[in-house]
Design brief:
With 428 residues, the protein is mainly alpha-helical. Helix content is 55%, strand content 8%. It has helices at 2-20, 35-42, 52-62, 68-71, 75-89, 99-118, 129-148, 155-163, 167-189, 194-197, 203-212, 218-249, 251-264, 277-280, 284-296, 330-333, 337-340, 354-357, 378-395, and strands at 94-95, 302-306, 312-313, 319-320, 325-329, 396-399, 409-412, 414-417, 423-427. It has a three-stranded antiparallel sheet with strand order 1-9-6. It has a two-stranded antiparallel ribbon with strand order 2-5. Strands 3-4 form a two-stranded antiparallel ribbon. Helix 9 crosses helix 11 (203-212) and helix 9 (167-189) packs across helix 12 (218-249). The radius of gyration is 22 Å and the shape is globular. The model is unreliable at 1-9 and 23-34 (pLDDT under 50). Belongs to the cytochrome P450 family. It comes from Musca domestica (House fly).
Length: 428
């Protein structure tokens, strides 16, 4: 009996200590990907599926709502939702760390994701996006932990973790799945807001049509939406946050960007201008700033791929056999001095001047991956980032005493800072 009590009391404590012990600050290069764990949690979809025979059907299914012509219809949502971000950031001044800015960005992008992916107005449905944003953020850490920490490869340890320290994360995943299922049912019962969706072709709208035509099982629809939902929410919010930090650290870049935005939008409107699709191609320096931010801080620092179509021989003579699962380290690729020069770790938007881009191999820069399996939401992310940053820079000035060389990183599937630096936010 005493032994049983000791096990019950101390096993969870030992597990928590083991969980906290691990140097996550190192962006490592894995050679084998335990993708089955991701599939167990999130189901089959664009993120977890590696075999060509499996992911190609997913891609074809999801392509229609991500056409540029359809993405343009989301621009009014991107513009309008920034007002909620403004309301939060207007309350900022000097902050001991910038975690609040990241939190505001997550809540903002979550609202956008509900509307553009799920066709759901979160505020009208009384959905607590603040709470969900917090929970979904924990899920990325949870997925990273069980994917890369060796002791979770033991089924007994993993099962104990699921019942204790990861219980809330698993419940959140089930909650999101349940909400997606409810929306699918609202389509079939005619209870969805038809007027609200009239001018939008959302991802869930596309997937529902496939479900109705008996082309795709319901569980695949739900898991696919989980993938899109988490990808659109987490990556965009982190990109906004890292861009703000870089502008705060480089006032000369911030000043030049502000001048470009003022030239394109001369009205003194505190960032309330409407950014159209035509405007996006008229802000070249903003494009350079965003690309340089994603070079240094690729939100997804590693990607998993499976060798297909036969063995692959690398330039150094190493042969990768067909079927091998590998991880590509984008974080290190983007900071390689042989590609980016001796100041590869320095923020410099001029890296993306057209003359400099032409001199580099196209696969030296791949924040959204490359090739046939590049990120399906790349254009979506670029549009939302440009709209958001143009409006933010028109309204605020950022400053900080932090140095980029002091940053320490964690890999939670997406890139995180160990400690958020101080930041000052001023209304212009």
């Amino acid at each position: 009996m005493h032994l049983f009590l000791i096990v019950v009391i101390f096993c969870p404590i030992f597990l928590w200590l083991l969980h906290r012990w691990n140097d996550r600050k190192v962006i490592s290069l894995a050679t084998k990907v335990p993708s089955y764990k991701l599939q167990m949690l999130l189901g089959f979809g664009p993120i977890t599926t590696q075999k060509c025979s499996e992911w190609i059907p997913h891609r074809k299914l999801l392509n229609p709502p991500f056409k540029v012509s359809n993405q343009i219809t989301f621009l009014p949502i991107f513009n309008q939702k920034v007002n909620g971000l403004f309301a939060a950031m207007d309350q900022c001044g000097y902050m001991e760390n910038s975690r609040d800015i990241l939190k505001f960005c997550r809540e903002f992008t979550l609202n956008i994701t509900f509307e553009t992916m799920l066709g759901h107005n979160a505020r009208a449905k009384n959905i607590d996006t603040k709470h969900i944003a917090k929970l979904v953020t924990h899920i990325t850490e949870y997925i990273s932990e069980i994917t890369f920490k060796f002791f979770y490869f033991n089924p007994l340890v993993l099962n104990l973790a699921h019942r204790t320290i990861f219980r809330e994360c698993r419940e959140t995943i089930e909650y999101v799945k349940g909400e997606i299922d409810k929306i699918l049912k609202s389509f079939s019962t005619g209870q969805h807001d038809a007027g609200y969706l009239e001018n939008l072709y959302t991802a869930i709208h596309c997937l529902y049509e496939s479900l109705e035509n008996n082309e795709t099982p319901r569980e695949i629809i739900i898991s696919g939406m989980i993938h899109l939902f988490s990808g659109a929410f987490e990556t965009t919010s982190s990109s906004i946050y890292f861009t703000v930090l870089m502008l705060a650290m480089h006032p000369e870049v911030q000043s030049k960007l502000f001048s470009e935005i003022c030239e394109r939008f001369p009205e003194n409107d505190d960032g309330n201008m409407e950014v159209t699709y035509e405007h996006l191609s008229q802000l070249p320096y903003l494009d350079m700033v965003l690309k340089e931010t994603l070079r240094l801080f690729p939100v997804v620092p590693q990607i998993a791929r499976q060798v297909s179509g036969g063995n692959v021989r690398l330039s150094n003579g190493v042969v990768l056999p067909e079927g091998l699962n590998v991880m590509l380290n984008i974080f290190l690729l983007h900071r390689d001095p042989q590609i980016w020069g001796p100041k590869a770790n320095t923020f410099n938007p001029d890296n993306f001047l057209p003359c400099n881009v032409e001199q580099r191999h196209p696969y030296t820069y791949m924040p959204f991956s490359k090739g046939t399996r590049s990120c399906i939401g790349m254009r979506y992310a670029e549009m939302s980032l440009k709209v958001t940053m143009a409006k933010i820079i028109k309204r605020y000035k950022f400053s900080t005493t932090a140095k980029i060389e002091d940053f320490e990183w964690e890999n939670h599937i997406s890139l995180h800072l160990v400690n958020n630096p101080p930041l000052t936010v001023e209304r212009r």
